[in-house]
Amino acid sequence: MRILFIGDIFGHPGRRIVKEFLPALLGEYEPDLVLANGENAAAGFGITPSLVEELLDMGIAVLTSGNHIWDKKEIYTFLNEHSDGRLLRPANYPPGVPGQGVYLGNTRSGFGYAVLNLQGRIFMTPIDCPFRTADDLLAKIPADVKLRIVDMHAEASSEKVSMGWYLDGRVTAVLGTHTHISTADEKVLPGGTAYLTDLGMTGPYDSVIGIDKQTVIQKFLNQLPTRFEVAKGDVRLHAVLIEADPQTGRALSIQRIVRK
Ligand SMILES: [Fe+2]
What we know:
6 helices; alpha/beta; 27% helix; six-stranded mixed β-sheet; single chain; binds fe (ii) ion
């Protein structure tokens, strides 16, 4: 069975290219499960309830997120009261914050799956340990749920690579998000876990990680407060396709997919 995971959907250009290319990707690869990171869907900063709905309606089963999940105030009550659980926030935020970091569901062909969302701590908010959180979460997932996909939302490649090795043989995939720069290290680790340090962004590449490049360069030059605008040009979709054995949860292959 196949799982398609779309990298960080950035602003309107990112949402537009998913809408444009996802139907063809569904036709070509026939994935049983489509996942995406949506933390930058709202003009690069956070996501709103209506954008959650918009993306899920395109055929995405579960949206993961990261540090930007808190950017839009209306998402707090959504996560607490209105969500059906298909928008995740990183699981290793302190107890009591809105939302959940795990989703349990069934694929179209009826296999149980779990999506886990974790966030790194290097050059990021010092939240709870993602490694110990992963241990705790995996211990609670029913044994018959073999397909387990982890979004490791982190800045440092060392932390993401470590998570890949740490969870090798215990999950189907560990996929990095957050840096918006696609890495070329996709592989299936010896224990059967598909791994990629960063999926890359689904959004405008004529930019600095999605933002108008001149604004970001100015910010580096003068360090003054700046209003960031979403860039427009060179919009691309970045994703991975994972082939997995649903009986064991082991990944068989992982390939990067780019559309523009
Ligand atoms: Fe992020």
